[in-house]
Design goal:
Length: 798
């Protein structure tokens, strides 16, 4: 049987099963297909998954959506938890603030499970789950491979990658598998000359970006490795420790400004991002009697550093306050000598994310007519958040206390904890009919503590005599936000004491190192503890499967998934509640023509209750609140056919997602329509109505090897960039696009060579649109897909 017709075994239901026997909507991309399509990252494999949409601003800052469950604005480091779960083997790697973009090499398969997976996968699998399954060590034989690529990008520079794998048996009961990789993605965005002028005019400040002008300045380097040791303790017990290390360094901006030019932008401060993560994991598998037992534990440590130009913010607010002289007339952007300074900003951000997960489960024999999977799960994830909004030369008295030059500081610590017990049971009512019922009881406990906001001038107003009374209070002249809201030893805030004539000197110390004090906390008996929100509940899945004959299966599913509530990082905004997704689905899986044809599909309707809605509020500060309900209907299908040397695949989806009530500026609408951001019936953003992709590969014997030609075409329709009507109009719509890849190659027993072209007609597909701040509508930015890339690949096995 040709390799493309090999049985695809998946573990979506925590068992090894043929994908055609799994009664849920699932797509799987195997090792061979991943290699054939030259897939190495998240953006590349998601174009083949019809139910998946995503937003990204740069590599490593990506938010994933499935089946239209998207309100937009997610992905902030202290925003909502993701609605789509990500797994690496048995361990969850779902992270706050951007999906972990694991380099794809030596991967057994990628599984995409559409619809709520709350029973077996928990909180962050509300809308679906993506699982990356690595190839495991094999003690039966030595194996190795090396692959290399060089490429050139239209309108850009040159890139390439070098990857390798060794599988080394250590004995007949142990083996080691090691993977290493380096990849350089060429830049294609040009930072072109430009100026910005700030009021008052004439006599204001005009700046240029001459020292930062550079062609192709958004290049990216990614490197790392993975090692796994598999030890068979006896005939039934196996231990597999693994470690993954990956580092990405990106430079420049990955978005362009259409007002400046195609693939061009104007930036006035250096921009970069460093994303480093390491994960250690342990999987223990065995049997007690004839029951399977699995333990999966992991510890993930991720550190990111970013430097972003925030000039758009300064420009927008200078225009906003034009009637009073712009920033110079309205704010106090002054140096230590009292002189007005250049108001441009840059943002230095760091996140230190840690995640510990533990799962223990058992499974009864798969061949029994009644079988169960049950287990317990715990995870703790934390994020130490640092966001430093800097204006060079800003005076110490108008800066955040202890941080001269800092206009605004966020210094917070977030902890999210989940506890769960889950179980799923299947009963064969007849040889053709199976009923499955499952549930997951969960508890979540989320907390946030720290500081956010402006500083407070520590000086003394002679007419008052107390510290922190001098004017101006800070560079923004704000008397409410920041240090003004910090707690004193008696439980009052500094602002309260200032207004009622009390002692303003007894500030409690910062609870998060690096902050000047604490204004996001709960005061209890002289101490500050984190603000907390918690909840509990049950998710469920019911499934009825009918197999009237070999190669034919129909199923019906009713399932639910949830996403925990949380604390807004702006302390004067209340917490947000959990949102819940209910899914009703009918599906089919068919295998025909002696396995040469597969055709699968599903139709579904989902009800999304009180969806979490994130948006940039006052001072461009992210706020999360619960919105109205939404209704989502859709169809997804995929097919595969093998006709001699020709293999064809196609996958597509139709998604109709709309609000069922008005979305308002506050959770409860005023009622007169003045605060309506999106009326009832507004389509949910980001997800295209139509998405379809197809691949064709034709191979023929050539001498002692095989030659092939391969093509891929992917299309998606347009989508709104924001759920809010006015904001979507300002940002512009995500336009529809069609892209194609072409490859020509030759395979020998141990060698392969390929010439390829990706995005062959150089389509400027739009991944996302965004702006720097809530008021920065004057400069919407577009993140495009990679321009046309032509390259050469070669590899060998040994």
């Amino acid at each position: 049987m040709p390799p493309d017709r090999d049985e695809i075994v998946v573990t979506a239901q925590k068992r090894d099963e043929n994908i055609q026997s799994v009664p849920i909507s699932i797509q799987a991309i195997g090792t061979r297909k991943l290699d054939q399509l030259n897939i190495s990252n998240f953006n590349e494999f998601t174009q083949l998954l019809p139910s998946v949409a995503f937003q990204t601003s740069q590599p490593g800052v990506t938010t994933v959506y499935m089946r239209g469950v998207a309100s937009g604005g997610d992905g902030n480091h202290s925003g909502s938890l993701p609605s789509v779960g990500s797994y690496l083997d048995e361990q969850p790697v779902t992270t706050i603030g951007g999906t972990l973009d694991v380099h794809i090499y030596d991967i057994a398969r990628i599984e995409s499970l559409a619809g709520p997976q709350g029973t077996l996968y928990g909180a962050s699998s509300q809308a679906g789950t993506i699982r990356i399954i690595t190839n495991k060590p094999d003690a039966s034989a030595f194996d190795g491979r090396v692959d290399a690529e060089v490429n050139t990008v239209a309108h850009g520079g040159q890139g390439g990658k070098l990857e390798g794998m060794i599988n080394a048996p250590l004995s007949n009961w142990a083996a080691l598998r090691v993977v290493g990789f380096y990849q350089r993605d060429a830049g294609y965005i040009d930072n072109v000359p430009g100026t910005r002028s700030f009021l008052p005019q004439p006599g204001g400040i005009t700046v240029d970006n001459d020292e930062f002008v550079e062609d192709n300045y958004n290049d990216t380097e990614t490197w790392g490795g993975r090692a796994a040791l598999k030890v068979d303790l006896d005939e039934t017990w196996t231990v597999t420790p693994t470690v993954l290390y990956q580092e990405m360094r990106g430079h420049g901006s990955y978005a362009f400004d259409p007002q400046v030019g195609d693939l061009e932008v104007q930036r006035f401060y250096p921009e970069s991002r460093r994303d480093r993560f390491i994960q250690g994991a342990l999987t223990i598998e065995g049997k007690i009697g004839n029951w399977d037992v699995t333990y999966a534990g992991a510890y993930l440590d991720r550190k990111t550093y970013s430097s972003s130009d925030y000039t758009d913010y300064s420009e927008a607010y200078d225009n906003l306050y034009a009637s009073v002289g712009g920033l110079a007339g309205y704010f106090y952007y002054l140096d230590n000598a009292g002189n007005t300074i250049d108001p441009r900003q840059r943002v230095i951000g760091t996140d230190h994310f840690k995640k510990t997960s533990q799962e223990l489960r058992v499974a009864s024999p798969a061949e029994d007519p009644f079988r169960i999977v049950a287990g317990m799960f715990y995870q703790r994830q934390s994020n130490l958040i640092h966001q430093d909004y800097q204006i060079p030369n800003l005076g110490a008295d108008v800066s955040v206390n202890g941080s001269p030059g800092t206009l605004w500081l966020t210094q917070q610590h977030r902890v999210d904890k989940d506890y769960a017990m889950f179980g799923e049971a299947s009963l064969d009512l007849t040889p053709q009919l199976t009923f499955t019922a499952g549930g997951r009881a969960y508890i979540y406990d989320n907390s946030l503590i720290g500081f956010f906001g402006f500083g407070r001038n520590p000086g003394v107003d002679p007419a008052d005599g107390r510290p922190y009374t001098a004017s101006p209070f800070n560079a923004a002249g704000s008397s409410r936000t920041g240090v003004a809201g910090c707690y004193l030893t008696d439980g009052r805030t500094l602002r309260d004491a200032y207004l009622d004539g009390g002692d303003t000197s007894a500030l409690l110390p910062a609870m998060v190192e690096g902050g000047p004090c604490t204004n996001l906390a709960t005061y209890v008996d002289g101490k500050l503890i984190p603000k907390k929100t918690s909840g509990q509940g049950v998710t469920y899945r019911f499934n009825l499967t009918w197999k009237p004959s070999d190669g034919l299966m129909f199923y019906a599913v009713a399932s639910s998934g949830f996403r925990p509530g949380g604390i807004n990082r702006r302390g004067d905004v209340g917490p947000y509640s959990a949102d819940v997704l209910y899914n009703y689905e009918l599906g089919w899986k068919t295998t025909l023509a002696d396995g040469r044809l597969r055709f699968n599909g599903a139709i579904y309707q989902q009800s999304w209750k009180d969806f979490q809605f994130s948006f940039l509020g006052p001072n461009s500060f992210t706020i999360i609140q619960n919105g109205p309900d939404a209704r989502i209907r859709g169809v997804e299908m995929d097919a595969n056919a093998t006709l001699g040397g020709l293999n064809l695949t196609v996958a597509g989806s139709y998604t109709d997602a709309k609000t069922r009530e008005d979305l308002c500026a506050t959770q409860i609408c005023i009622g007169d329509g003045s605060d309506v951001l999106a009326p009832e019936g507004t389509r949910l953003p980001i997800t295209p109505r139509f998405k379809i992709s197809g691949t064709a590969r034709y191979s023929v014997p050539l001498g002692s090897g095989r030659g092939y030609i391969q093509g891929l075409v992917a299309h998606q329709s347009s989508a709104s960039s924001d759920i809010r009507i006015a904001k979507a109009a300002a940002l512009g719509r995500l336009e529809s696009y069609t892209t194609g890849n072409l490859a020509l190659g030759f395979e020998l027993a141990k060698f392969n060579f390929e010439l390829f072209a990706q995005n062959i007609w150089d389509e400027r597909g739009q991944i996302s649109r965004f702006q720097q701040c809530g008021a920065c509508d004057q400069r919407p930015l577009i993140v495009p897909i990679m321009p046309r890339t032509i390259g050469l690949r070669a590899g060998t096995r040994f």
